[in-house]
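Weekly modeling sync, notes
Attendees: S.R. (lead), two postdocs, one rotation student

Agenda item 3: backlog of single-chain predictions. S.R. asked that every request posted to the team notebook include the full sequence so nobody has to chase files. The rotation student volunteered to paste the first one in as an example of the format we agreed on. Action items at the bottom.

Example entry:
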Amino acid sequence: MPLHAHVRTRDGWPVQHAVVTVTDMTGAQVLRADADPDGAVVSQAPLAPGPYTVVVTALGYAPAARTALVAGPGRAELGTVVLARAGGVELPPPGAWTLDPAHSSVGAVAQHLGISSVHGRFTDFGGRVEIAPDLAASRVDAVISAASIDTGNGLRDKHLKSPDFLDVETYPEITYRSHGLTPAGPDRWTVHGSLTLRGIVREVDLSLTYLGTGPDPWGGTRAAFHATAELRREDFAMNYNQVVQAGIAAIGTTVRVELDIQAVRGEQLPQA
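Predicted structure, as returned to the notebook:
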């Protein structure tokens, strides 16, 4: 297996139409291979030991180039190659953007028994993004219905809605309001904001990646983002836990939040 790589988007999806081209130091092409439906690129064509330039291209994505050094066995192990959408670092136009819940997800992951994870999501949420001409002044406001938590297990969801956790009857809404942005790269930012959960307000930073902007089938313009954050349950008075054998807590003390967001330009969503 002289050449092996995986081609992915910034949020982890395979790029199945990617093309990998390998040239030697004279600029002569010595190998060309296509990615399979899983984004994997495998070529059995022999490569002589030495340095090569590898260029990965795909329609709609900016090309990525790297140098590969083939050693004695003749293998070029490229690992994961991440492609950004073409023009992805061009920021969304200023103005109001409305979150599209039908094409977005708000998820949470908690450790269970110290060996695995339980995944949940909120199914009822909405929000608004205001992109300012001065990007640092941009804002995001989001509201989540706490009772919409869904982990795929009715008994667990009932417990999560109880006063041990979300206490949805007393605190029906979870809100997030940003108040600042700090650049972390050409298409990444740290979003600074206040999260209100169970009536408790805490400062929570989101690690945000901008995935690009483009037209949708309904005549609108969409921008896509991926964001993550980590919360400590004790910061929001969710201290319930059980200790199983060997002193291991049944539920982890932290919760990882994962957001995949599409926002549509304008104050309202277009009609499908």
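Discussion: group reviewed the output briefly. The chain is about 5% helix and 55% strand.
Action items: rotation student to repeat for the remaining queue; S.R. to check formatting next week.
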